[in-house]
Amino acid sequence: MDKRDKIFWLVLLVALLALPAVGLSRYMQRIISLIFIYSMLALSLNIVTGYMGQVSLGHAAFYAIGAYTSGLLSEHFGWNFLLTCLCAIVFTGFIGWIFSLPTMKLSGTYLAIITMGFGEIVKVLIVNWESLTHGTYGLQNIAKPELFGMTLKTTNNGMYYLCLAFLVLMVLLCVAIERSKLGRTLRAIQDDPLASSLMGIELSHYKRLAFTISTALAGCCGALYAHLSGYVDANSFHSDVSMMILSIVIFGGRGSIKGMVVGAGILVAFPEVFRFLAEYRFIVYGLILIVMMVFRTDGLLGGHSKRPYVFPRYVKVNKEGGGEPDGAAGSK
Amino acid sequence: MALLEVSNVSKQFGGLAAVSNVDFHVEEGEIVSIIGPNGAGKTTIFNLLTGVYTVTEGKIVFNGEEIQNKKVQHIVNAGIARTFQNIRLFKNMRTIENVMIGFHQNTKYNTFDLIFRTPRFRKYEKAAHEKALEVLDSLGFGKYIHTYAGNLPYGEQRKLEIARAIATGAKLLLLDEPAAGMNPQESAELLEFIKGLQAKGFTIILIEHDMSVVMNISDRIYVLDHGRMIADGLPEEIANNQTVIEAYLGKSEDDADD
Amino acid sequence: MTVQYLVNGLTMGLIYALIAVGYSLVFGILKMINMAHGAIYAVGAHMILMFVTWNLGTLPAVILSIVFTGGLLVVYDRSILATLRKKKAPGIAALVTTIGFSQILTNALQIIFGTEIKSFPALFGNKMIQIGNVKFQFSQVYILVVSVILLLGLTLLINKTKVGLAMRAVEQNSRAADLMGINAKGVISVTFFLSGMSAVIAALLLASYYQTVYPTMGAMIGLKGFSASVLGGIGSLFGAAIGGIILGLAESLTVAFLSGAYRDAVAFILLFIILIIRPNGLFGKAKISKV
């Protein structure tokens, strides 16, 4: 992160921390919490789609697995949210890993369709595995998280701050990934898989790793959502949800962490803000996606950065090294 | 013993022999060129050496170890790295990041270290950055550190590919037509650049069409035609070799087209 | 009983085949999945319904619907996708615009026609035919005959005509084809039109069999058709047809011998298994990438 990024995040964080003091209606709280959750979902998908360049059309399935894991554990054993959430992360990541074993030799269209298929399979399982999931009744009255002797509800802003805290953690994690060997490797794989393997990168290992991390994080989002809304069923994880997550990633700008949060803010809030457009708002929504892709293919905040590469604090660089990041130094 | 010893290597695609019974060797510190007409099988040899293709038959010994049919990653680790005829940089990554990818194998920390920012994470990230800067500095890339590889001038892209290969810690560099598409001045600069690499102790195998480069730089030359080695020797020997001239220009009665 | 299920499975399979062909045609030329194909199918069905209620007669209604729906795809391609191609945008961008397009179409249908399920006339009658133990509707015979004719027609078109040759040329190498004087733009438009046509005909056949239409009717069948095309090897017309038929039969047999509950999962489980064994689908060709 360079200085300007740091300022962006700090201002945003302070604003979000202060926002409930203004007195948000329950409705507004719910929408903003949803934006937090969708930001996290987009951040998680960004690892696979933004960095590695592979499309998943079934991210909602992992979101669902996390939600049901946490919801069911809380229902049956009454465990604390932090524990059920951790279980959701681990279990969803495990399923993601199993899923990745045979599928990560695939890429492009084939990976897209197989993830979408997985999404449908999970939905059918949720509806039909009644002894576990209560079928179409869904999970009802999922307990609100209790932390430090406090029940986190919408009314006491608890859920709002819980989701925000998770979002902060996830942004930090994604920044760490982006600025590490893992992030570099994934972007290299996206740019040129063959050249990557000739640099000694084990493609399938990294594809699986990325997918596992991505799905584990989606599981975390699921857990949050289940306890936020108190109710989930198969329709909470419709394929439209997968499309929404993918749309945020592309709209916000593949690979841009800021883009995920801004993108989620815009796309989730859009149908709510534009309620006066009534049913036309979904048409406008589709139009926005199209227009965006035609005029800004890299998304809102994606594409090459105009700013210099940021070295880690502990690396000393002599100042004169420089040059424009986007080729001004070279003849184009 | 030679650094690289290729004996009796063949590669078939279906019924088609791309390379047949090829023998050659490269001594440590040498610059060896492989030349030959288009489609002679030169790049196939690079693909066999780097494990992109499996050999149908034969043996490749590098640094005392048999590496034929080993995994690509294993061969990189053993110390062979290459560039590509059509530049294959990570275009959407910066120059410094491209070189850091070269250090991939030597950046030894795992996801746990990454998430919890262990001292090990810091140590290897620091090392990767510093080594990348060192390589870039030594090759005169200072002003392009922040530039996205895809935006570099053409000649610099070629050089960056070499820098990236060096970063893997390779002893043996395979350069596939590094002078392709360069004007005479750029070729001349590249020539100096490659000589500089030799002076730094790298061993180099070069595939090249630009004869001014090949004749000026090579310690020895192998000539490949239709997948077979038809000649080898010092540059001046090759320049006067009748078989080679025929392979290139065609015999007088059947004019070969390019 | 089994024969009965096989007959039903085959009918459904042919519908999937028609949808799959629609995906495959576009993918073959543009290497892109048209996520709006399901919505296009729904548009086709609603158009037929509208023209039929205007008393235009069945055949003119179908033709008008084909022209309108196919035209819609062509316009979309010329305005949106062509722009993206010119900008050399990554494939993912085109994919997302088709998701947006699908949203627009489905919601437009909901606004214009309402979200409820509407009844569709049994254009091919609803007479039942019985041969031995096997009972089937007359419209199933229509499905069989029309879809086989259409599939054969498309195959002939692609393999035997000048247009087909041009399509294959563009598929191989659109720039080279362009240099050889082939109108690549025109070829792409024809492809989209044919893709739309196959969707409309699938919609016609299935809607008059089930006698219902609704705006989101294309969602699930779109996903399944897509699976069928990948199953057979996307880009291959023959593969798409076989993939559709396999899928229809597998679904029908699952309902017969296992349970109806898992019907909608069959397509995807099958897809999973096939892709793991044959990563390019049943009839797809593996690409050898040159270094």
UniProtKB/TrEMBL annotation, chain A:
It is found in: Cell membrane. GO terms for cellular component: plasma membrane. It is a multi-pass membrane protein. One of its GO terms (molecular function) is branched-chain amino acid transmembrane transporter activity. The chain crosses the membrane at residues 7-25, 31-48, 79-99, 111-129, 158-177, 209-228, 248-270, 282-301. Keywords: Cell membrane, Membrane, Transmembrane, Transmembrane helix. Its main location: membrane. PANTHER family: HIGH-AFFINITY BRANCHED-CHAIN AMINO ACID TRANSPORT SYSTEM PERMEASE, HIGH-AFFINITY BRANCHED-CHAIN AMINO ACID TRANSPORT SYSTEM PERMEASE PROTEIN LIVM. This is Branched-chain amino acid ABC transporter permease. It comes from Fusibacillus kribbianus.
From TrEMBL, chain B:
GO terms for cellular component: plasma membrane. SUPFAM superfamilies: P-loop containing nucleoside triphosphate hydrolases. InterPro entries: AAA+_ATPase, ABC_AA/LPS_Transport, ABC_transporter-like_ATP-bd, BCA_ABC_TP_C, P-loop_NTPase. Keywords: ATP-binding, Nucleotide-binding, Transport. Residues 4-251 form the ABC transporter domain. It holds the Pfam family ABC_tran. PROSITE patterns: ABC_TRANSPORTER_2 (PS50893). One of its GO terms (biological process) is L-valine import across plasma membrane. It comes from the Bacteria. GO terms for molecular function: ATP binding; ATP hydrolysis activity; L-isoleucine transmembrane transporter activity; L-phenylalanine transmembrane transporter activity; L-valine transmembrane transporter activity. This is ABC transporter ATP-binding protein. It comes from Fusibacillus kribbianus. The lineage of its organism: Bacteria, Bacillati, Bacillota, Clostridia, Lachnospirales.
From TrEMBL, chain C:
The keyword Cell membrane applies. Coiled coil: none annotated. GO terms for biological process: D-alanine transmembrane transport; L-alanine transport; L-isoleucine import across plasma membrane. Keywords: Amino-acid transport, Cell inner membrane, Cell membrane, Membrane, Transmembrane, Transmembrane helix, Transport. InterPro entries: ABC_transp_permease, BCAA_transport_permease. It is found in: Cell membrane. One of its GO terms (cellular component) is plasma membrane. This is Branched-chain amino acid ABC transporter permease. It is a multi-pass membrane protein. Belongs to the binding-protein-dependent transport system permease family. LivHM subfamily. Its main location: membrane. It comes from the Bacteria. One of its GO terms (molecular function) is L-leucine transmembrane transporter activity. The chain crosses the membrane at residues 6-26, 62-80, 92-113, 141-158, 187-210, 230-249, 261-277. It holds the Pfam family BPD_transp_2.
